[in-house]
Amino acid sequence: MSGPLLKVENLTKHYPLGTGFLKKTIPVIRAVEDVSFSVEAGETFCIVGESGCGKSTVARLLMRLVAPTAGRVLIDGTDIAGLRQHALRAWRRRMQMVFQDPYSSLNPRLTTGQIITEPVENFERLSRRQRQALAADLLRKVGMSPEMIHRLPSELSGGQRQRLGIARALALEPSLIIADEAVSALDVSVQAQILNLLMDLQQQMGIAFVFISHDLRVVEHIAHRVAVMYLGRIVELAPCEALFAKPVHPYTEALIAAAPVPDPTRVRLEVLVEGEVPSPINPPSGCAFHPRCPLAVERCRIEVPPLVPMADGRVVACHVRAPATEIPGSAVRSNSSAHATLRMIRS
Ligand SMILES: Nc1ncnc2c1ncn2[C@@H]1O[C@H](COP(=O)(O)OP(=O)(O)OP(=O)(O)O)[C@@H](O)[C@H]1O
Predict the structure, then answer these.
(1) Which atom of ligand 1 approaches the CA of 232 most closely?
(2) How far is the CA of 53 from the centre of ligand 1 (A)?
(3) What is the ipTM of this complex?
(4) How many independent structural domains does the chain possess?
(5) Which amino acid residue places its CA nearest to atom 3 of ligand 1?
C-alpha cells in the first residue's frame, strides 16, 4: 500500500451560533480552521494545545461523528464522506476510538466480556464459545485476567476500565485508533502503564494512533510527530524530538518551556502561557496568537501566516520565525533574541 493511512485535507468545522432567523449572517464558532496532516501506518501522531483549541473536534471529524464545514478525510486514499453504507461499515472497522472517561463511555449494565465483544457482534454472529475466547484473548492482550470477564465496569479500577476501553477498541483489529485524552483521567503511575501498553500494542499489531492530549510530557513520551494547535489551526507540525529540542513557533516554545517537570501535581496548560485564549467566535485578525506573542510585528496583525516547510521536515506558521517571504523593511529578530524575549515575558 502506498501513501499515508490517514490524510486530512483543509479540514474546517464552524459551529453556527443559533439559527440566524431574520439575520443575514449567523455568527459561528471557528472550532477547526484549515487543518491538514497525514498519518502513516504504525505511527503515533499527537495533537496538542490548550483547552478549546479544537483537538476534540478534529477527533470527532476523523470519526465522522460530526460533519466538516469544509475539507476531506481520506483513509488509504478514499474520501470517507463519499462512502455508502457497506463501505462505511468496512471503514468503521478500521478506525476505533478510545475516550477520556472510560467510565462514561462503557455501558454500566454490560459485563466486560459483553463490552469487548459487542463491536464484533455488530458485524458477525459469534457462538458463546467464540465470544468467550475472543474476550479472554483481548483481556490478556491489555494485561487483564480473563477471569474478569463477568465483572461490571463499576467493579473495576480507573486503569482497568481504560484497559477495557482499549480491549474493546482492539476487538475489530483496527489500523488506526483515535485516543482523545485517553490517559488524562488517570493517576500518573497508571498513565505510564497505559501508555506503555499502547506502545507495546503498536509494536505488536502495527496500529497507528492519533493521540490527542493537553499534556506535553505524555506527548513527548509517545509521539513520532506532533501537531501543535492554537485556536483551531495547526501552528507547528514537527517530528517529536525536533519539536521538543528546538520549538520554532513562539507558542510551541512557550508551552514547552512552561511544561511542568515530572511531578505528580499535574498543571493544566491553560495556566502556563500568558493571557487568555481569544474567543473562537471572533478570533484576532492575522495570526490568532499575535495578541499574546512577544515577537508580533505589524504583519502578524494583518495576514494569517501560512504553514512554511523548514529544512528539518517541520512546518511552521509564523511570520517572524518562519517567514514565507521577506518582511520588507522590518527588523526581524534573530531566533536567539526572540527566545530571550519569551523568557523575559514568562519570568
Ligand atoms: N457541538 C458544539 N457546538 C458548539 N461549539 C462547540 C461544539 N463542540 C465544540 N465547540 C467549540 O469548539 C471549540 C473547540 O472545542 P474542542 O472541544 O474541539 O476543543 P479542545 O481543544 O478539545 O478542548 P478541551 O481540551 O477542553 O476538550 C471550543 O470553543 C468549543 O466551545
Answers:
(1) 14
(2) 7
(3) 0.97
(4) 1
(5) 15
